Amino acid sequence: MLSPIDKKIIHELSLNARISWVNLGAEVGLSPSACQRRVEALQTNGVIKRFTVEVDPVAVGQAIHAVVQIKVERQDVETARAFRARLSSYTEISGFYKLSGAIDYLIHLHVADIRALSDFLDNRLLALDGVVDASSAIVLAEQKVGYRPA
């Protein structure tokens, strides 16, 4: 269980992972060195997985964000593993989730335009062995992205 201070630290880091120890300490009411020790402990304990950069897909020419639901035929363990590895290798895919229920997988992908989306679906996704169906929807607006604990 996280302490209230640790939750505040995580919240501040989720807003700005480059915040200085001095500024983080001021936000959460601790000294800079105490903040650093707590962040290192959160990393060691696996609470903080990594610090990263969030890239704007539109700014790098990937204007279309689509969500695709994928159904696959029943697969043995090795075939399923190979399928997941193949999808994970596609740079267009920014999120890839195995689901329970009627849909087997959900992916988020970013492509330049509608033609690139159609090409990806027809020539890369639907061409994979075992894919029975794929249903796509274009994201019109992102309302909330990312997990930020309170």
Describe the fold and architecture.
Strand 2 and strand 3 (105-111) form a beta hairpin. With 150 residues, the chain is α+β, with helices and mostly antiparallel strands. The chain has a 4-stranded antiparallel sheet. Helix 2 (21-28) packs across helix 3 (32-44). The chain has 2 domains: 4-44, Arc Repressor Mutant, subunit A, CATH 1.10.10; 57-138, Alpha-Beta Plaits. The two termini are 14 Å apart. The chain is built from 5 helices and 4 strands; from the N terminus they run αααβαββαβ. 39% of the residues lie in helices and 20% in strands. It is elongated and about 55 Å long. This is Transcriptional regulator. It comes from Litorimonas cladophorae. One of its GO terms (molecular function) is sequence-specific DNA binding.
Per DSSP E runs of 2 or more residues, the count of β-strands stands at 4
List segments where confidence is low: pLDDT < 50 over at least 5 consecutive residues.
none
Share of helix among residues?
A: 25-40%
Number of helices: 5
Mean pLDDT: 95
The CATH class of the largest domain, by name, is: Alpha Beta
Taking the alpha carbons of the first and last residues, their distance comes to 14 Å
Strand order of the largest sheet: 2-3-1-4
CATH H-tier superfamily of the largest domain: Lrp/AsnC effector binding domain/regulation of amino acid metabolism (RAM) domain
Q: Nearest-angstrom radius of gyration?
A: 20 Å
* Largest beta-sheet characterization: 4 strands, antiparallel
Q: What's the number of domains?
A: 2
Report the portion of residues in β strands. Answer: 15-25%
Organism: Litorimonas cladophorae
Protein name: Transcriptional regulator
GO cellular component, one term: cytosol
Domain HTH asnC-type: 2-63
